[in-house]
Amino acid sequence: MHILVVGGGGREHTIIKKLKENIEVEKIYALPGNGGIAADAECVPVKATDIDGIVAFAREKRVDFAVVAPDDPLVLGCVDRLEDELGIPCFGPRKNAAIIEGSKVFSKWLMHKYGIPTAASETFDDPDKAIAYLEKQDYPAVIKADGLALGKGVVIAQTFEEAKLAVKEMMCDKVFGESGSRVLVEEFMTGPEVSVLAFMDGKTVVPMVSAMDHKRARDNDEGLNTGGMGTIAPNPYYTEEVAKECMEKIFLPTMHAMNAEGRTFKGCLFFGLMITPKGPRVIEYNCRFGDPETQVVLPLLKSDLFTIMQAVSQQKLADVKVKFRDGAACCVVLASDGYPKKYASGFEMTLPELGCDEHLFVAGAKLEGGKLLTAGGRVIGAVATADTLEGAIKHAYEVAEKVKFENKYCRKDIGARALAAK
Ligand code: AMP
Ligand code: GLY
């Protein structure tokens, strides 16, 4: 089996390592991959958004299966092209289902239509009307750009002035381009957040072990929002009772809603949840594996990932076992100091030999003259699994300590909140 994996971050490195556990997998191409992924796959310099380039490469190499991991190529219809033009089976939703992440206005409409619990909201395509509405709201209020905005399209406005500014930037100054042509104004919800990734094939939904992300750059959830500075799994707020409620009120209804709309979702659907005093609510959907959630979820997966992915693409998920090991995992993201703003990179990295239950998933690095150099804000995820969450956190920080590069920065409190909640 020759597999093509679209993407080039820590999430893709994790997926690739897991796919390699299947002995049928002979070759993996990563488009574009990165300097660290190069140890596990053949990296090809085709951007994840270059759909023509991806299709041309897949045709030339006659790959047997494709995994499209990031949001942009999914929203752009990469799976449709690979399936329709080349007949290549894919893991990942088609364009008409990827819209569940690609348009927040669509996903809100879907949730309201099918009674899936989420924050109350209003949609606006006229900035004056949005501002008139915001004048009458309680604060904080949440303003969201409709389309993809590199994870930056959400503003929690503390005052009307802040809300007005957010609307002006999104709708008039177009800081996110067309993604901000429409905005949502949402009720501000409170409660712990949980990330649940689920395999879904339109007939069956199988949630994976739950996770907790740490989005802010600094300890104690201070500093700017980032792509994610670390994760733990399982998330202690996701009790069996909550899981049951989510399955009944959120996961199954979402799958059925997408089917009813003629938008069958096949792939990994990411439920961003908030456990509010009134029960679990959807904050957002993503049409893909989360990053860095994947780095803690897949190391706990006991079953074979490639078998599951093939089953999803054939809508036979019900026929395969999806088992997770007991215990916990922690991922500490090692970043370039300064991220998510300006940072220096290009520094040589030294990686330790890995022991049992230890993993390193490379997010931003390049190979130059045989040396691995830092090349990104988020550089590498140091991951460990253990029987307990406490053990996994301690062990992940030991791995993190052994990774050396100049300008290395990480949060020191990944998992602390989860431990306190237990
Ligand atoms: P999103 O990109 O939609 O996941 O939003 C990013 C972050 O903003 C979430 O992880 C939450 O922490 C926060 N957020 C989004 N929507 C709401 C809401 N309605 N109430 C409270 N916080 C929210
Ligand atoms: N960690 C959140 C995301 O992947 O969007």
Description of the molecule:
- By secondary structure, the chain is of the alpha+beta class.
- 31% of the residues lie in helices and 28% in strands.
- The protein is built from 13 helices and 23 strands.
- The strands form six sheets. Strands 12, 15, 18, 19, 22 and 23 form a six-stranded antiparallel β-sheet that branches. A five-stranded parallel β-sheet has the order 3-2-1-4-5, with helices on both faces. A four-stranded antiparallel β-sheet has the order 6-9-7-8, sandwiched between helices.
- α2 packs parallel to α4 and α7 packs antiparallel against α8.
- The radius of gyration is 21 Å and the shape is globular.
- The model has no long low-confidence stretch (mean pLDDT 97).
- Glycine binds next to loops.
Notable features of this structure?
binds glycine; six-stranded antiparallel β-sheet; alpha+beta; 31% helix; five-stranded parallel β-sheet; binds adenosine monophosphate; 23 strands; single chain
